Amino acid sequence: MCGIALIVSGIRIDLSPSTLFQSSQSRAISYSFRNIGELQFIGATLQLRGLNPIIQPFVDSYGNVLIYNGEIFGGIHVLALLLDMGCNSVPNVFSTIKGPWAIIYWQESSRTLWFGRDAFGRRSLVVHWPTVKDSRFLLSSVSPFSSVYQSSDFEVENGTHHNFWEELSCGIYSLSMDASKLHGYLAGEVKKHEWGHPASSDIVTFESGPDQTMVSLPAHNVLSALRKSVILRASQYRIFEAVRCYSRQEEHVPVAVLFSGGLDSMILSALLDECLDPSYGIDLLNVSFDGQSAPDRISAKAGVKELRRIAPLRRWKLVEIDSDLSKLTLEMKHVMSLINPANTYMDLNIGVALWLAASGDGWVSERPGNNSDEDQQRLRYKSEARIVLVGSGADEQCAGYGRHRTKYRCGSWHGLNEEMKLDVQRIWKRNMGRDDRCIADNGKEARFPFLDEDVIKVLLDIPLWEVTNLDQPSGTGDKKILREVARMLGLHEAAVLPKRAIQFGSRIARESNRNVFGSNRAANQASAGSVVINRS
């Protein structure tokens, strides 16, 4: 996977109240301060574009060091601007990046360490803040595998258990090194900075546009923004070493979709077809823990038929990834390390489903000649796509969750708006870090078109009653604007599908509930989704 890490030792750090992975293309750089303190930078690159490998960390002639995990879809040339600007301008530079990012940057001139992640946490970055037991300051794209099973993974302070790792809250931080010694250590203070760009601040706070009554053709605006978002994440893809791996270009599949056959994944698939070179195939990755009977498998089969109807020349492959939860003992332990510091059974169920889906290792059905579906042959297949489009963010922005309907009924439009704002502002902690780690572990990069900055801005400029109508039943009024987008794309069947989360659609939650709690009824009584995993 692509990832970054930093180890800071021998430095006394004050936390302001405002406040490792494997790759053949990785290396580490250490900075020592007269044997008092040390900063160790580690970077690994998942090569997606270009013919020449890129090695991290980046180091210039001035002694500045940059390690970066993410994509820049627009905005700025990061390294050049960082070299030319003073300390106060670094937050401005980070704030103008369009795309997912996690950054660690040492600025030699000011002896300052800068670090952070984008406003929605689309790239993972976990942190260990110094404690009495372990005084190191650590940043990493993942928590080490072994730490989940060692007592060091949990620390006790004042009788309270603390996870060794925690998700770094989205934002931009600095750690300035004080040259003066303090009891044999260098002193450093961590500060969290405001976003330096006004547009970033509006998106982070999920504030609606100033004049929402003047928006015309809202669904067309959303479709246009989503189309541009998918183009940025797909058509600019440059094949790396494709000639070596494939004898014919038409066999290559550069981009896949995490696919349930539901509204969000159907929209992404149809837009990907519009944006991707017609010579490429598209893999639709579908995971099931109940064979052909899982709801997501049923909707996926119906969905691929609809996609073939609107885009008959595209080579669509529905990759059926079947699994049995009872046979995943080692895999479950591995995924537990990936979701860490998330620690509930719901996190584990979602993590396992995403991890298996992203592997792309399953079956495809092929029809000899023009024979009927009954004559299909099922063949082993592993998707080699290294980019996976994921529908995260659609429900949060378009009122797709059941709790949104509850808030609307209890608190009208204001209550709904506040709940949706809360969902977007905490998506980094609830979803994104966990999902990024589980998908990246397969050597794949997750890309989230619904969380594109311009898509978010377009949706914020549209009156909420144009986005959703929760007076209407499920499958009609919820995510109303996305249902209109689906119809504009010719996806009339997908446009009326109800929301279904991956843990329920794949039926991993049902199997997990039976294994852990004995039955679904017992699991519901125990509020299984929020129960912390028993690691004993």
TrEMBL record:
UniProt-listed GO biological process terms: asparagine biosynthetic process
Keyword entries, A-Z: Amino-acid biosynthesis, Asparagine biosynthesis, Glutamine amidotransferase
Name this polypeptide is given: ASPARAGINE SYNTHETASE DOMAIN-CONTAINING PROTEIN 1
Example of a GO MF term: asparagine synthase (glutamine-hydrolyzing) activity
Record has Amino-acid biosynthesis as a keyword: yes
A Pfam entry, by short name: Asn_synthase
Residues in Asparagine synthetase domain copies: 248-306, 412-491
Entries under InterPro entries matching the protein: Asn_synthase, Asn_synthetase_domain, Ntn_hydrolases_N, Rossmann-like_a/b/a_fold
